[in-house]
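Budget justification aside, the reviewers requested a transparent look at the raw inputs and outputs of the sequence design task funded under Objective 1. We therefore reproduce one unedited record. The lines immediately below are the structure tokens for a 330-residue chain.
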């Protein structure tokens, strides 16, 4: 009888302890101090060699040094980043699977593709935005266009074609948004990549193109194309003399490609916070800043709250642009 009573009291004591504030939660979500205890996988939903992959490998090396564990890049391309993004959404939420990808994974795909296998808002814990790169509006030397006002004025008299890689890509949406904000008459010409669009621009087959600054810089420096304006809100340190569309009279215009790091929904908050802090500190290192500039990226940090806010804002903006332009993907 005495033994049964002691067992009952012990059980009540354990139940009482587990109801103390924070204790149950602490048992469910280990402290960030215990993480990482093994290598971390950083999924890149693109093939090796592209800009996102290059950035991911830089960050993997830097984060690995800071965390004291290997960060292994795993390429999972396909379905316009959908294969990798869906795999990460389904992964165990323990902090050992992360993803780095560009803005369209979160701010465009869900507006165009049904049955994605992930939800840009509900499937992830946002860790940080960890870099950005502007696009640049380009013209050839025969067009006579030098400013945003030039192209707007000329296009209203005669529609101008502009090239970009792909349909519903960020540079395509940037061009459509410019037209919607200014009344310019712009006709989109989709290309399979930057190289064929650049060839046609230089050859005079199209008067305008919107491309990444990284891809355009060699031709700009060679004097084969002219930079009309950057699509970012602020100028780039890579080309400080090139104005922005925003400066050219289109207030609030800001179309960039940024790179976000996320974890599966339910990843413990202490792990998310630790990761975000490490990214912020990493981006403040002079060596990292120099390497980013060398690769053509601008340092750009946003914490989890700001990251989520940007996704929500760009989803709303892009939905309006896509609807007004009647963009559809077959």
């Amino acid at each position: 009888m005495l033994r049964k009573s002691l067992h009952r009291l012990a059980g009540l004591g354990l139940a009482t302890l587990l109801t103390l504030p924070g204790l149950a939660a602490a048992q469910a979500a280990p402290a960030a101090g215990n993480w990482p205890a093994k290598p971390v996988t950083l999924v890149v939903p693109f093939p090796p060699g592209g800009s996102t992959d290059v950035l991911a490998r830089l960050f993997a090396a830097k984060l690995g040094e800071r965390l004291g564990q290997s960060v292994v890049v795993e390429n999972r391309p396909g379905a316009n980043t959908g294969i990798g993004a869906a795999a990460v959404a389904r992964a165990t939420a323990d902090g050992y699977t992360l993803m780095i990808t560009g803005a369209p994974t979160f701010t465009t795909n869900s507006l165009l593709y049904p049955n994605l296998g992930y939800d840009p808002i509900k499937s992830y814990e946002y860790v940080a935005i960890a870099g950005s790169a502007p696009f640049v509006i380009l013209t050839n030397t025969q067009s006579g266009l030098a400013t945003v006002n030039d192209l707007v004025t000329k296009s209203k008299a005669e529609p101008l074609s502009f090239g970009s890689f792909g349909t519903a890509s960020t540079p395509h949406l940037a061009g459509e948004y410019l037209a919607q904000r200014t009344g310019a008459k712009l006709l989109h010409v989709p290309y399979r990549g930057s190289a064929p669009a650049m060839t046609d621009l230089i050859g005079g087959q199209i008067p305008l193109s919107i491309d990444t600054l990284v891809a355009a810089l060699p031709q700009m420096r060679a004097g084969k194309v002219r930079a009309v304006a950057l699509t970012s809100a602020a100028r780039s340190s890579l080309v400080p003399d090139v104005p922005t569309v925003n400066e050219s009279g289109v207030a609030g215009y800001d179309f960039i490609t940024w790179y976000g790091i996320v974890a599966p929904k339910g990843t413990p908050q202490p792990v998310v916070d630790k990761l975000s802090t490490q990214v912020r500190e990493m981006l403040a290192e002079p060596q990292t800043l120099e390497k980013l500039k060398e690769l053509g990226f601008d340092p750009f940090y946003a914490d989890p709250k700001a990251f989520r806010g940007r996704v929500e804002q760009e989803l709303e903006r892009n939905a309006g642009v896509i609807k007004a332009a009647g963009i559809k993907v077959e």
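The chain is about 45% helix and 20% strand. Residues 40-133+257-325 form a domain with the D-Maltodextrin-Binding Protein; domain 2 fold (CATH 3.40.190.150). Computational costs for records of this kind are itemized in the attached budget.
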